[in-house]
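Researcher: Going back to the complex we discussed earlier. I've cleaned up the inputs and rechecked each line, so this should be the final set. Can you rerun the prediction on the complete assembly and write out the structure?
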Amino acid sequence: MPDRDNLLLIARLDQKMHLLRYCAGQIEDLQTIDFDQNTADEDLALLVRQTLSEASDSKGALPTIFTLVGDVVPSAEAVSAYEKAIGATYRRAEGLFELNELDGLRSDQIIAVGAAIAAARPEKAINLAASDHSVTAGINSRPSWRHWSVAAVVLLAALALWYASDVKQAQRLNAAVEEASLEAKDLTALNTDLQVARYLETAGPTFLAILDEFSHNTEGFIIDEMRYERDGQFTVSAVSRSSQQINRLAAELSKMRTLSSVQIRSQATKDRDKVEYKLVAVPSKQYFAPFAPPIPEPEVSDQQSASIDSEEMGGGS
Amino acid sequence: MSARDRRAILIGAVLIGLAVLYRVALTPLFDQWGQARADVTAQAAMLDQFEGKLERRSDIRKRLEPRYGPGVHQSLSTADEARVAFPRSVQQAIQQGGAATKQVEVQGLRRLRDLPGVELLSLRVLVTCKPDAIPGIFRELSQAELPTVVESVNLRMPNRGQRQKWEATLVVSTPTLAGRGNP
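Model: Rerun complete. Updated structure for the full complex:
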């Protein structure tokens, strides 16, 4: 990099001009020129050229780039005159210090640079010569543009990754939604399906479940009429030979899990050996199976068995 | 103009440029991004909800199938569709159960208080059969094409002397979608 390899800093303050040559990563020399206040810029440029030529005989090539700092802002004519005299390109001082990585110099060189800059631009280098440690710390604690750039790039990369992650997730979800053909009306239809399913599930025992359990529990009884209302009552009407048999039927119905609140609504003697009766019950709200599971047969004594056999028999419903 | 002035102008210009960039390009981009994130959240929630409900519906339908047949796996039909399909389904089940259908009468639609989107289409069916065929009728009804709810049953012997001839009056219903094809 020519900027780094061959830099001339011309610091002008009052009637002194400090020339600081910075070559190949090293401070080459620091020279001071006294001049008259009324000296023209062209003459000053020639004076600089002459000083540099004398110094370059012993210390290497002339600078390829130079900058001007000082108590006077250099005019375009002055810059042009210096460029012509020195044969180097002018660069503004701003940014040049960082560009040349002055923080890589030795502490004595930094102090020399600091002295030159402090003479011309006190606000630029006020702390440079304070101490070796503080100089190094001061320079290192201030992030360079490169650091800011890296931080910005990292931040942008993180944001880009975040954005890409969201976009990818959105694409995945959109694909899933499209694949399932989901729309708001589908959700409504699904809700309706669920409501209907819950309604069917809690609709109590089916007539088939009651009939199934009834036929298992009342084998031997003949029924004339049977009424079932899902939200109402279950009614059995028949004619029996005795009230005892009716009571036994009521007791059997009471054991059923599909029925509850069994009671004999009416019984009336029709003939000498006929009793007309009506039993009512309520379909149980807690029984939801399609069929009633078989109930284990209770142990029946011989006497009870004989009594059942003597009752009126038939093909129960 | 001093270097400091130029620097201040430059920094100001950069800040103004950044503000314009933020207003013109970044704000819409962030809005779009925010909207996309909100959409993603909503879609994910809807998918989760949908999957959960699908699973619940599947579970309930599995439990309902033994009681109401394979018809529970289908979505509800409209009332017009059910007016055609339900009597056919019921008559077919009764016939397969070994009974004869004497009369089928469509009783109409009944709204359910807790299910605003659903109406029950009811049929009144008169059946004659032998007593041993009665369980078969209801078993076939529980496996009918459309889910069949037995609302009421009246089983009786028309003539006490003829114990092998029973008459059954059934009121059965099936759920339909409300407000579609109603008269």
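Model: Worth noting: The helical segments of chain B are 3-68, 79-96, 134-141.
Researcher: Good, that matches what I expected from the previous run.
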